[in-house]
Protein backbone atom coordinates (compact mmCIF):
# COMPACT_ATOMS: atom_id res chain seq x y z
CA UNK A 1 0.00 0.00 0.00
CA UNK A 2 1.36 3.43 -0.96
CA UNK A 3 -0.05 6.52 0.75
CA UNK A 4 2.50 9.04 -0.48
CA UNK A 5 0.69 10.96 -3.20
CA UNK A 6 0.82 14.72 -2.57
CA UNK A 7 2.37 14.29 0.88
CA UNK A 8 4.72 16.92 2.29
CA UNK A 9 7.97 15.89 4.00
CA UNK A 10 10.50 17.86 6.03
CA UNK A 11 13.90 16.15 5.97
CA UNK A 12 16.98 17.26 7.90
CA UNK A 13 20.44 16.24 6.71
CA UNK A 14 18.98 16.19 3.21
CA UNK A 15 22.15 16.89 1.23
CA UNK A 16 23.86 13.56 1.82
CA UNK A 17 23.56 10.02 3.16
CA UNK A 18 20.23 8.80 4.46
CA UNK A 19 18.50 12.18 4.13
CA UNK A 20 19.52 12.53 0.49
CA UNK A 21 18.37 9.03 -0.39
CA UNK A 22 15.11 9.44 1.51
CA UNK A 23 14.19 12.38 -0.73
CA UNK A 24 15.07 10.41 -3.85
CA UNK A 25 13.11 7.36 -2.70
CA UNK A 26 10.08 9.48 -1.82
CA UNK A 27 10.16 11.07 -5.27
CA UNK A 28 10.36 7.70 -6.96
CA UNK A 29 7.65 6.10 -4.80
CA UNK A 30 5.25 9.03 -5.25
CA UNK A 31 5.97 9.51 -8.96
CA UNK A 32 7.15 13.02 -8.20
CA UNK A 33 3.92 14.10 -6.51
CA UNK A 34 5.38 14.80 -3.06
CA UNK A 35 6.53 18.20 -1.82
CA UNK A 36 9.58 18.84 0.33
CA UNK A 37 11.24 21.04 2.91
CA UNK A 38 14.92 20.09 2.73
CA UNK A 39 17.30 21.21 5.47
CA UNK A 40 21.09 20.94 5.56
CA UNK A 41 24.26 22.88 6.30
CA UNK A 42 25.32 22.41 2.67
CA UNK A 43 22.89 24.80 1.00
CA UNK A 44 24.80 24.80 -2.30
CA UNK A 45 24.36 21.05 -2.62
CA UNK A 46 20.67 21.34 -1.71
CA UNK A 47 20.17 23.92 -4.45
CA UNK A 48 21.93 21.66 -6.94
CA UNK A 49 19.81 18.72 -5.86
CA UNK A 50 16.62 20.76 -6.16
CA UNK A 51 17.43 21.53 -9.79
CA UNK A 52 18.18 17.86 -10.36
CA UNK A 53 14.84 16.79 -8.89
CA UNK A 54 12.91 19.36 -10.92
CA UNK A 55 14.58 18.18 -14.12
CA UNK A 56 13.77 14.54 -13.35
CA UNK A 57 10.12 15.28 -12.55
CA UNK A 58 8.90 17.95 -15.01
CA UNK A 59 5.44 18.11 -13.43
CA UNK A 60 6.93 19.45 -10.21
CA UNK A 61 6.84 23.19 -9.62
CA UNK A 62 9.65 25.27 -8.20
CA UNK A 63 7.76 25.91 -4.96
CA UNK A 64 7.16 22.19 -4.44
CA UNK A 65 10.72 21.95 -3.08
CA UNK A 66 11.91 24.42 -0.48
CA UNK A 67 15.57 24.21 0.48
CA UNK A 68 17.13 26.00 3.41
CA UNK A 69 20.43 26.27 5.23
CA UNK A 70 19.76 24.67 8.58
CA UNK A 71 22.10 24.65 11.56
CA UNK A 72 20.61 22.39 14.24
CA UNK A 73 23.14 23.37 16.89
CA UNK A 74 20.92 25.92 18.65
CA UNK A 75 17.25 26.75 19.13
CA UNK A 76 17.77 30.28 17.84
CA UNK A 77 19.33 29.08 14.59
CA UNK A 78 16.55 26.54 14.07
CA UNK A 79 13.86 29.16 14.72
CA UNK A 80 15.58 31.43 12.19
CA UNK A 81 15.14 29.03 9.27
CA UNK A 82 11.91 27.44 10.46
CA UNK A 83 10.04 30.75 10.50
CA UNK A 84 10.93 31.32 6.85
CA UNK A 85 9.43 28.06 5.59
CA UNK A 86 6.46 28.84 3.32
CA UNK A 87 3.12 28.42 5.10
CA UNK A 88 1.54 26.19 2.40
CA UNK A 89 4.26 23.63 3.09
CA UNK A 90 4.78 23.76 6.83
CA UNK A 91 1.12 24.21 7.77
CA UNK A 92 0.19 21.03 5.90
CA UNK A 93 3.23 18.94 6.83
CA UNK A 94 2.79 15.16 6.78
CA UNK A 95 6.23 13.76 7.62
CA UNK A 96 9.18 15.03 9.65
CA UNK A 97 12.31 12.94 9.13
CA UNK A 98 15.07 13.89 11.57
CA UNK A 99 18.03 12.39 9.75
CA UNK A 100 20.78 14.90 10.62
CA UNK A 101 23.38 13.62 13.09
CA UNK A 102 27.09 13.21 13.57
CA UNK A 103 29.94 11.81 15.64
CA UNK A 104 33.28 13.41 16.43
CA UNK A 105 36.37 11.41 17.33
CA UNK A 106 36.89 8.23 19.35
CA UNK A 107 38.46 9.82 22.41
CA UNK A 108 37.97 8.10 25.76
CA UNK A 109 36.35 9.75 28.77
CA UNK A 110 38.79 12.20 30.31
CA UNK A 111 40.15 13.16 26.90
CA UNK A 112 36.99 14.01 24.96
CA UNK A 113 37.07 17.55 23.60
CA UNK A 114 34.30 19.66 25.12
CA UNK A 115 33.52 21.20 21.74
CA UNK A 116 32.96 17.71 20.32
CA UNK A 117 30.62 16.81 23.18
CA UNK A 118 28.66 20.02 22.69
CA UNK A 119 28.39 19.54 18.92
CA UNK A 120 27.18 15.94 19.18
CA UNK A 121 24.58 16.66 21.84
CA UNK A 122 23.42 19.93 20.26
CA UNK A 123 22.92 18.27 16.88
CA UNK A 124 21.93 14.69 17.71
CA UNK A 125 19.47 15.28 20.52
CA UNK A 126 18.84 18.98 21.25
CA UNK A 127 18.37 19.85 17.58
CA UNK A 128 16.15 16.81 17.06
CA UNK A 129 14.06 17.72 20.11
CA UNK A 130 13.68 21.28 18.89
CA UNK A 131 12.47 20.12 15.47
CA UNK A 132 9.89 17.92 17.19
CA UNK A 133 8.88 20.82 19.45
CA UNK A 134 8.13 22.86 16.34
CA UNK A 135 6.28 20.26 14.28
CA UNK A 136 4.22 18.60 17.04
CA UNK A 137 1.83 21.60 17.44
CA UNK A 138 1.25 21.54 13.66
CA UNK A 139 0.56 17.81 13.72
CA UNK A 140 -1.75 18.17 16.73
CA UNK A 141 -3.70 20.96 15.05
CA UNK A 142 -4.20 18.81 11.95
CA UNK A 143 -4.49 15.55 13.95
CA UNK A 144 -2.15 13.86 11.50
CA UNK A 145 1.55 13.40 10.93
CA UNK A 146 4.50 11.08 11.21
CA UNK A 147 7.80 11.77 12.96
CA UNK A 148 10.78 9.58 12.07
CA UNK A 149 13.80 9.97 14.34
CA UNK A 150 17.06 8.37 13.25
CA UNK A 151 18.83 6.94 16.26
CA UNK A 152 21.61 4.35 16.25
CA UNK A 153 22.43 0.89 17.49
CA UNK A 154 25.01 2.85 19.50
CA UNK A 155 22.15 4.08 21.69
CA UNK A 156 21.38 0.47 22.61
CA UNK A 157 24.93 -0.89 22.76
CA UNK A 158 27.53 1.75 23.77
CA UNK A 159 31.15 1.11 22.87
CA UNK A 160 34.56 2.33 24.08
CA UNK A 161 35.50 5.64 22.53
CA UNK A 162 31.87 6.51 21.87
CA UNK A 163 30.69 7.61 25.33
CA UNK A 164 29.40 11.01 24.19
CA UNK A 165 28.00 9.92 20.84
CA UNK A 166 26.33 6.80 22.26
CA UNK A 167 24.83 8.83 25.10
CA UNK A 168 23.33 11.29 22.63
CA UNK A 169 21.72 8.44 20.70
CA UNK A 170 20.44 6.79 23.88
CA UNK A 171 18.79 10.12 24.65
CA UNK A 172 17.12 10.02 21.23
CA UNK A 173 15.55 6.68 22.13
CA UNK A 174 14.30 7.93 25.51
CA UNK A 175 12.89 11.10 23.96
CA UNK A 176 11.22 9.16 21.17
CA UNK A 177 9.53 6.76 23.60
CA UNK A 178 8.23 9.58 25.78
CA UNK A 179 6.98 11.49 22.74
CA UNK A 180 5.10 8.47 21.42
CA UNK A 181 3.34 8.06 24.76
CA UNK A 182 2.45 11.76 24.85
CA UNK A 183 0.85 11.56 21.39
CA UNK A 184 -1.01 8.30 21.83
CA UNK A 185 -4.39 10.08 21.74
CA UNK A 186 -3.65 11.70 18.39
CA UNK A 187 -3.33 10.26 14.89
CA UNK A 188 0.38 10.99 14.99
CA UNK A 189 2.96 8.25 14.53
CA UNK A 190 6.37 8.42 16.21
CA UNK A 191 8.98 6.09 14.74
CA UNK A 192 12.55 5.33 15.82
CA UNK A 193 14.98 3.75 13.36
CA UNK A 194 18.32 2.62 14.79
CA UNK A 195 20.82 1.64 12.09
CA UNK A 196 24.07 -0.17 12.61
CA UNK A 197 27.02 0.64 10.36
CA UNK A 198 25.98 2.60 7.25
CA UNK A 199 28.35 3.68 4.48
CA UNK A 200 27.84 7.44 4.46
CA UNK A 201 30.10 10.41 5.23
CA UNK A 202 29.57 9.63 8.94
CA UNK A 203 33.08 8.25 9.48
CA UNK A 204 34.66 11.03 7.42
CA UNK A 205 33.01 13.55 9.73
CA UNK A 206 33.97 11.59 12.83
CA UNK A 207 37.64 11.62 11.81
CA UNK A 208 37.68 15.26 10.67
CA UNK A 209 38.14 14.46 6.98
CA UNK A 210 40.86 11.83 7.45
CA UNK A 211 40.04 9.48 4.57
CA UNK A 212 42.49 6.80 5.73
CA UNK A 213 40.80 6.47 9.11
CA UNK A 214 37.34 6.72 7.57
CA UNK A 215 38.06 4.03 4.98
CA UNK A 216 39.47 1.71 7.65
CA UNK A 217 36.02 1.53 9.27
CA UNK A 218 34.69 -0.30 6.21
CA UNK A 219 37.77 -2.41 5.45
CA UNK A 220 36.89 -6.12 5.11
CA UNK A 221 33.37 -5.28 6.28
CA UNK A 222 30.23 -4.66 4.24
CA UNK A 223 28.07 -1.95 5.85
CA UNK A 224 24.50 -1.02 5.03
CA UNK A 225 23.93 1.31 2.10
CA UNK A 226 22.06 4.57 2.77
CA UNK A 227 19.28 3.25 0.54
CA UNK A 228 18.69 0.37 2.97
CA UNK A 229 17.65 2.92 5.59
CA UNK A 230 15.85 5.33 3.26
CA UNK A 231 13.83 2.48 1.76
CA UNK A 232 12.74 1.58 5.29
CA UNK A 233 11.73 5.18 5.99
CA UNK A 234 9.56 5.23 2.87
CA UNK A 235 7.98 1.92 3.87
CA UNK A 236 7.04 2.87 7.43
CA UNK A 237 5.69 6.30 6.51
CA UNK A 238 3.58 4.96 3.63
CA UNK A 239 1.54 2.58 5.81
CA UNK A 240 -2.11 3.41 6.44
CA UNK A 241 -2.68 5.89 9.26
CA UNK A 242 -3.64 3.25 11.82
CA UNK A 243 -0.48 1.23 11.22
CA UNK A 244 2.51 2.49 13.21
CA UNK A 245 5.81 0.65 12.89
CA UNK A 246 7.46 1.87 16.07
CA UNK A 247 11.07 0.89 16.94
CA UNK A 248 13.33 -0.71 14.34
CA UNK A 249 16.98 -1.82 14.48
CA UNK A 250 18.47 -2.37 11.01
CA UNK A 251 21.91 -3.97 10.69
CA UNK A 252 24.35 -5.32 8.14
CA UNK A 253 23.94 -9.09 8.09
CA UNK A 254 27.39 -9.65 9.63
CA UNK A 255 27.06 -7.09 12.39
CA UNK A 256 25.64 -8.13 15.75
CA UNK A 257 26.96 -5.53 18.20
CA UNK A 258 28.57 -2.09 18.30
CA UNK A 259 31.81 -3.57 19.63
CA UNK A 260 32.53 -5.40 16.38
CA UNK A 261 35.91 -4.86 14.74
CA UNK A 262 34.58 -2.03 12.58
CA UNK A 263 34.05 0.18 15.63
CA UNK A 264 37.41 -0.34 17.34
TrEMBL record:
Keywords: NADP, Oxidoreductase
MF term (GO), any: oxidoreductase activity, acting on the CH-OH group of donors, NAD or NADP as acceptor
Pfam families: adh_short
Highest taxon, organism lineage: Eukaryota
Coiled coil (residue ranges): none
UniProt KW Oxidoreductase keyword: yes
Keyword Secreted applies: no
The family this protein is said to belong to: Belongs to the short-chain dehydrogenases/reductases (SDR) family.
Protein name: CYFA0S06e04192g1_1
The species this protein was found in: Cyberlindnera fabianii
Amino acid sequence: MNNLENKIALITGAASGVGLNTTKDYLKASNGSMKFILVDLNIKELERLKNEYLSLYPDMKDDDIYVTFGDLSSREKIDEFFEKIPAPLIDNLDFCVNSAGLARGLDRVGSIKQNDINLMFNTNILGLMTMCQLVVPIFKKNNKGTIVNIGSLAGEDPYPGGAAYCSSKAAVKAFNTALRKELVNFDIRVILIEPGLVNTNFSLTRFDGDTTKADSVYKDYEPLAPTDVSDLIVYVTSRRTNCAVSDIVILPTRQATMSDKAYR
